[in-house]
Amino acid sequence: MKIVCLLGSPRPKGNSAMIAARFLETAAGLGAETRTFALNRLTYRGCQACFTCKTKLDRCVLKDDLTEVLESIHWADTVVIASPIYYGDVTGQVKCFIDRTYSFLTPDYITSSSPSRLAPGKKLVFVLTQGQSDPDRFAQVFPRYGSIMKWYGFGESHLIRACGVGPKATAAELEPYLRLAEETAKKILDSASSISST
Ligand SMILES: Cc1cc2nc3c(=O)[nH]c(=O)nc-3n(C[C@H](O)[C@H](O)[C@H](O)COP(=O)(O)O)c2cc1C
């Protein structure tokens, strides 16, 4: 199992990073190979709408720090995207990445029954954290990005969502979500090992 994790928070030891780290540690302990990119440390642009990925190349023509990140999504079996909610959505760092994934779509993606250049069946783990404790607030963020990833051919998707965790969340407040991260990793690794042993 190859796992790539994108950290969307500028806080390297923040809530979303801690939850993602627990997922990755658990998965690595069960034999997964993991790679992590802290998007905030990278320099990249959003999609330039040049359409080169629809006319000349099967990849994004831009060469910047996101080039390796986009390639790593092709490589991975499971993709973890961890982001705090900023103004009701993922952070700008994650949104810029999402826009650049336009290169994952084939030129005829609007009409095609297989619109994605990614191998099918990758798994998605979305880690979302927010200060607001009401889970109805920003509940649409996961379905919004989950449906884009489904369009890209992702199979199952998992949500680890922590509501009511601000910048000073304590270890005790994070604990239930850290446990959920462990359980999610075990579930994904267990199902992968049962498929490979059949
Ligand atoms: C610029 C900014 C915007 C934020 N916007 C929201 C918001 O719209 N709703 C919310 O519930 N929390 C919001 N928050 C709080 C964060 O989502 C929350 O503290 C989160 O757990 C931080 O995750 P991190 O530690 O991984 O960075 C915002 C924080 C910042 C810095």
Largest sheet: 5 strands, parallel
What small molecules accompany the polymer chains?
flavin mononucleotide
Question: For this structure, what is the CATH class?
Answer: Alpha Beta
**Cross-sheet strand order for the largest sheet:** 2-1-3-4-5
Which word captures the global form?
Answer: globular
How far is the N terminus from the C terminus? Answer: 16 Å
Number of helix segments?
6
Which residues sit in consecutive blocks of at least 5 with pLDDT less than 50? none
Care to give the gist of this entry?
The protein is α/β, with parallel strands linked by helices and 198 residues long. The chain has one domain (2-196): Rossmann fold.
Task: Describe the overall structure.
It is globular, with a radius of gyration of 17 Å. It contains six helices and five strands; from the N terminus they run βαβααβαβαβα. It has one domain (2-196): Flavodoxin domain (Rossmann fold), CATH 3.40.50. It has helices at residues 15-29, 52-55, 66-75, 92-100, 141-151, 171-196, and strands at residues 2-7, 33-38, 78-84, 123-130, 157-163. The model has no long low-confidence stretch (mean pLDDT 96). Helices cover 38% and strands 17% of the residues. Helix 1 (15-29) packs parallel to helix 6. The chain has a five-stranded parallel β-sheet with strand order 2-1-3-4-5, sandwiched between helices. It is an alpha/beta fold. The structure holds flavin mononucleotide. Flavin mononucleotide binds next to helix 1 and strand 4.
Task: Produce the secondary structure layout.
Elements: E1 2-7, H1 15-29, E2 33-38, H2 52-55, H3 66-75, E3 78-84, H4 92-100, E4 123-130, H5 141-151, E5 157-163, H6 171-196
Parallel strand pairs: 1-2, 1-3, 3-4, 4-5
Helix pairs in contact: 1-6
The structure holds flavin mononucleotide.
